[in-house]
Amino acid sequence: MDIIKYTPAFRARCIVIFKSNQPKFFAEEELQLFADFLDHDIDDNYYLIQEEGEVVGCGGIFLDQQSDEVGLSWGMVHADFHKKGIGKALTLFRLDVMKHQFPDRTYKVDTSQFTAGFYKGLGFDTIAIVPNGFAKGLDKYVMKMTPPKDMP
Fold first, then answer.
1. Largest CB tally within 10 Å, which of 57, 73, 74, 131?
2. Is the pLDDT of residue 151 over 70?
3. pTM of the model
4. Count of CB atoms within 10 A of residue 52's CB?
5. Is a pLDDT exceeding 50 seen at residue 6?
6. Residue 146 domain flag
7. How confident is the model at residue 104 (pLDDT cuts 50, 70, 90)?
8. How sure is the predictor about 152, in pLDDT bands with cuts at 50, 70 and 90?
9. Assigned domain for 142 exists
């Protein structure tokens, strides 16, 4: 597996990855939000993960200036590559970036009931649950973590 920085040349592949995760993990109305993010909100902290040269996942980090929290943004793996450790590798990579760039911040992720267990296994705790917070049938789990100093 290789992790590289996102460039607009990979936009179409990221959209394919997003669509492969609909409707279970992402609502239909979120596609435009994700496309807008790729077109306008990418800064230097969005990454792609490749398996044998094929981009199979993407995800980034962000700094929320208001809350002074750092978060995981738009993380996903193509549905054909779920349960192979790719999402975990990409998430651990992003957590490591956060640890080095923002060592004294609280980490945050907004996710759904379908992936909350994954993030719990990495040390995040559920702070709030918003029923239908993303869309009907797609609850929003607000999860946070204070990273230990010796986090891998």
1. 57
2. no
3. 0.89
4. 7
5. yes
6. no
7. confident
8. very low
9. no
DSSP string covering 65-94: TTTTEEEEEEEEE-GGGTTSSHHHHHHHHH
Domain region containing 45: 2-104
Q: Which of 106, 99, 87 is nearest to 48 (CA)?
A: 87
Measured distance CA(112)–CA(117) in Å, rounded: 9
- Asked whether residue 1 carries a pLDDT value surpassing 90, the answer given is no
As a 3-state breakdown, the chain gives helix, strand, coil percent values, each rounded to 5, of 35, 35, 30
Burial class (CB in 10 A: 0-12, 13-18, 19+), 131: exposed
Average pLDDT, the chain: 91
Q: What is the CATH number of the domain that holds 31?
A: 3.40.630.30
The answer to whether residue 76 sits within a structural domain is: yes
Residue 91 lies in a domain: yes
Averaged pLDDT for residues 49-67: 91
Gap between the Cα atoms of 91 and 96, Å rounded: 9
Q: How many structural domains are present in the chain?
A: 1
Give the residues across from 54 on adjacent strands: 51
List CB contacts of 56: < 8 A, sequence separation 6 or more: 17, 49, 50, 77, 78, 80, 81, 86
